[in-house]
Amino acid sequence: xxxxxxxxxxxxxxxxxxxxxxxxxxxxxxxxxxxxxxxxxxxxxxxxxxxxxxxxxxxxxxxxxxxxxxxxxxxxxxxxxxxxxxxxxxxxxxxxxxxxxxxxxxxxxxxxxxxxxxxxxxxxxxxxxxxxxxxxxxxxxxxxxxxxxxxxxxxxxxxxxxxxxxxxxxxxxxxxxxxxxxxxxxxxxxxxxxxxxxxxxxxxxxxxxxxxxxxxxxxxxxxxxxxxxxxxxxxxxxxxxxxxxxxxxxxxxxxxxxxxxxxxxxxxxxxxxxxxxxxxxxxxxxxxxxxxxxxxxxxxxxxxxxxxxxxxxxxxxxxxxxxxxxxxxxxxxxxxxxxxxxxxxxxxxxxxxxxxxxxxxxxxxxxxxxxxxxxxxxxxxxxxxxxxxxxxxxxxxxx
Length: 399
Description:
Blueprint: E1 10-14, H1 18-28, E2 33-37, E3 49-53, H2 54-62, H3 66-69, E4 78-82, E5 88-93, E6 102-106, H4 107-121, E7 124-126, E8 131-135, E9 139-142, E10 147-149, E11 152-155, H5 162-166, E12 170-186, E13 201-206, E14 209-215, E15 220-228, H6 232-235, H7 241-247, H8 252-255, E16 263-272, E17 276-277, E18 280-282, H9 285-288, H10 297-314, H11 319-344, H12 352-362, H13 366-372
Parallel strand pairs: 1-2, 1-11, 2-7, 4-13, 11-18
Antiparallel strand pairs: 3-6, 4-5, 8-9, 9-10, 12-15, 12-16, 13-14, 14-15, 17-18
Helix pairs in contact: 1-4, 1-10, 2-10, 10-11
């Protein structure tokens, strides 16, 4: 959607990740001049997959990045959780008529689609440009001493955001003492005990460890090996195949292929006193980092990035007021998503038998399913016009 409602207004954005690029494209499409600063020397993303539920897909459609982003993506028919005996605890149908939508894609594919949407809209993207602070009056400060004035400044510079911290917006940051070794490897039809499962999204539990199996394209498999931070043997990279095979003997063939792949990331919760200060807005992990149990970290970044562009463009002459209204409208759903994901992490330390029994009961609760899927089926601000344009179902692989 291209309009001129923001013509004559300028935005400076810190961080060329999912949130920063989405906000940049959405603002530029509304007539703003936009410059994005990325501290890294290039725009490559870490090699991993990402879950994009229906809410995120609607945002991609709204900014014109959908077709490129889902090219070659994987679209499974269900998401399952399995216990230590490989018994199914939960079975969540997806991508059927009228149901929740989910595709998994490579992060680099998503970033490339967002970059191209930005460039089509005229966004300037500058690499090797590190933002270190901001001023509420609308100034983005760079590490090299330069100061860029703007009508709107957006910080989407990650969980360790120096821009956020320069404004004293952090309410609390809680390490969850749990994390994952994430990796991207080639797919094989023989990875799982049954070939019938090869296209299914599956999370396996055993003790305090999890393995997330995520097909992300016809050839790529995203795997997350989750464990406690204190489980030093399990979190070591390269991983110890024998150790993980002992916990998940039914996945021995898959585990044997991990080789030296992987990177350890810790899970954290970030809450802010406010999402903005004056003319400066905070997005993504800098504002609301969450554990990945709902697969909505990227989805919330996409939603809030588009909605801040909508809010700023609706009231560009009073950005502080627009940002306050933006937070009032959007934060409740993000807080719900973050809190639900945090709560789901409690089961990491349950005994296997207890967890299995509880999840089999929970999996039959319609009310709990509604709460967990609330974000996935949400129609984000700025996407109302494209809501009916997304397919109700999709083939096993988007092409």
